[in-house]
User: What shape does this take?
Amino acid sequence: MSDKEKIKMWTDISKTASLDRIAEAKERLADANDPKLKAKEELKAQKKLDKHKRKEARKDYLRSIRKENRATLSIIFIISISIFAYSEFNNEITGWLAFLSLLYFIFEPMTHIWNFLISILKKVIKTVRKT
Assistant: This one.
């Protein structure tokens, strides 16, 4: 095979390859304008938005529950400390109740930190699994 024939052969190959790439690009553009594909993409976006809204609603609900728990425990703490002090620190039940309430107020913020760290660890594991 002469050099001219080789050059002609490679030219033909490159032309067909570029024509194939152009055809693929046209197909991708046609797919992007396809109403079914657009509907699927919109549905995915809507699901993602709904998931985000549900997540925010759950966070708000948990915040309100924690506020209610804090209010209830603060009342229990005040009452148990009052009874414990009134009984001249001899009543074991109210002493334990006051102690446990106090522990809740000490460790409750730490649970938020642990939950935060656990969520970060889950995200890292999820990204590692994807790769």
